[in-house]
Amino acid sequence: MLVLSLFAGVMLDAAFGEPRRAHPLVGFGRLVRAIENAGHADGRLRGVLAWSLAVAPIVAATAYLQLILMARSPWAGSAFGAVVLYLCIGLRSLDEHAVPVACALRDGDLQAARDAVARIVSRDTAVLDAERVAAAATESVLENGNDAVFGALFWYVALGPAGAVGYRLANTLDAMWGYRTPRYERFGWAAARIDDVLNWLPARLTALTYAVLGDTAAAWRCWRAQAPQWDSPNAGPVMAAGAGALRVRLGGAAPYHGRWEPRPELGEGAAPDAESIERAQRLVGRGAMLWLATIAFGAWLWRAL
């Protein structure tokens, strides 16, 4: 039943993409803002409490519903799990956001490419040239392959629908609170650290997936040499291995809040362009298929033994 619900959830995402209206994460975002406005304080303990209030009730409710439905009918439980997974992953969404960037670059429309990439990255896109636009989009696809696809699949397999929900909410809270700014440096500490912990193993499995499906030697070389230089313990392996697998140069200085911030170089080989974005999309897509096939084979082997 796990494999069936897993495949069904991925197929729902492929067929429909993210809900255009009333996405649960939009409602969760409003809840998070309300909790933050009511309880923000410059302290780690307050951040831990806020994180718990935002995540724990939803995860508990998901686990409870899953238990109730499975007790009534395994088919109902599997259908519920498939819908939950569909709401937690974003494979099609990655493509929908990356394709306009690649198309604009191919058409030579730099301003349209900047506008499109601004929807998926936080850096100042108005000052990016075509190469840096392509790099930003390629990095986003590689990193979000872990955050929006492989991480959710991992925790769904590990802990069922509640695991996928907990992971997705933790990832969302990290995106909202996990900044090293005066407001969030202490209050958002828990959100950042919990996301780091939950992503530690999925990120390395994602990096391994990229290495297996791309230029393995280059991916492994870049992973070992470049990932430790990256600030994020999880984004480093993912993007270094992905850049190496694609044989493309990423990383480097990027503009944030009006100034260029230094970042380590990632990958090796050619400069990024529209094709780099498309190759990253295909790499993530093939990786998702590999994960599904591996999980299905593992489930068959478990039953056979």
TrEMBL record:
Mode of membrane association: Multi-pass membrane protein
Transmembrane portions of the chain: 48-68, 75-94, 148-170, 283-302
Record carries keyword Cytoplasm: no
Compartments, as annotated in UniProt: Cell membrane
Pathway: Cofactor biosynthesis; adenosylcobalamin biosynthesis
The entry's keywords: Cell membrane, Cobalamin biosynthesis, Membrane, Transmembrane, Transmembrane helix
InterPro entries documented for this protein: Cobalamin_biosynth_CobD/CbiB
Keyword Membrane on entry: yes
Family indicated by similarity: Belongs to the CobD/CbiB family.
Function (record text): Converts cobyric acid to cobinamide by the addition of aminopropanol on the F carboxylic group.
PANTHER family from the UniProt entry: COBALAMIN BIOSYNTHESIS PROTEIN CBIB
NCBIfam families found in the cross-reference section: cobal_cbiB (TIGR00380)
Name assigned to this protein: Cobalamin biosynthesis protein CobD
Organism for this UniProt entry: Lysobacter firmicutimachus
Lineage: Bacteria, Pseudomonadati, Pseudomonadota, Gammaproteobacteria, Lysobacterales
